[in-house]
Design goal:
alpha+beta, Nitrilase/N-carbamoyl-D-aminoacid amidohydrolase, globular
């Protein structure tokens, strides 16, 4: 289910090598006692760091990067799928992001459960704001239509979202509202958030308390694990 685009596959291969070194035997044993499947967000930058990524003023100088999501089967002890961000954040990122153009890779089975796995800004594919602002003939417009068609066919029951910083319940509000409206098969969803507010590379105090933010990023029987 990896992307069929060669440059994307090359980066995925490198990322998987790194993740295999990260997932030691002891760690896999700990994870496997808690979950049958685990997803990981993996960002790779070309000669720059995460601070440059968050500094929006410098984004025009930002070099190529990719935002990946891997799915690991703890019983088989192997990666079963890699996907990545398909929906760029803004006009600057559309020239720096190595897109995941394999839309099928977002649609996965965790055992018998159909799951939609999304990168950070991918969730906004379902936002009413995106629907209004994206012309049908543009890349974003075509992607929105393609994702909706695939959701209608696949009927995911769960959505797993891998955002970056999230410190307000409003950030993903319209997008999750769109998921509930446009994907009626979904019974559960969750965002694995980084509770922090960064603007132009500077850390600020979070705008809303965590106990207000978390309920806005989940639906159904979701158990939160908070890591400090």
């Amino acid at each position: 289910m990896n992307s069929t685009i060669p440059p994307f596959n090359i980066v995925v291969d490198k990322a998987e090598q790194f993740m295999r070194n990260f997932l030691t035997g002891d760690l896999i044993q700990i994870i496997s006692r808690k979950a049958d499947f685990v997803t990981f967000g993996v960002d790779i930058f070309d000669n720059v760091g995460i601070c440059d990524y968050y500094n929006r003023k410098n984004l025009k100088k930002f070099e190529k990067h990719v935002e990946l999501v891997s799915t690991f089967d703890t019983k088989q002890q192997k990666f079963t799928c890699w996907t990545g961000k398909s929906y760029p954040y803004d006009d600057v990122q559309k020239n720096t992001l190595l897109y995941c153009r394999d839309i099928e890779s977002h649609f996965q089975y965790f055992g018998q459960t159909p799951v939609l796995v999304l990168g950070c800004h991918d969730l906004n594919i379902f936002s009413s704001r995106s629907l209004k602002s994206s012309k049908p003939t543009t890349y974003k417009g075509k992607l929105i239509a393609e994702m909706q068609k695939k959701c209608d066919e696949f009927k995911p029951q769960m959505v797993l979202h891998h955002p970056h910083t999230t410190d307000s319940l409003l950030i993903w509000n319209k997008a999750w509202s769109g998921v509930r409206k446009f994907i009626p098969s979904v019974k559960m969803y969750s965002s694995g958030i980084h509770y922090q507010y960064i603007k132009d590379g500077v850390n600020y105090a979070q705008r809303q308390p965590l106990n207000k933010v978390l309920p806005a990023t989940a639906l159904g029987n979701v158990e939160n694990t908070i890591i400090h």
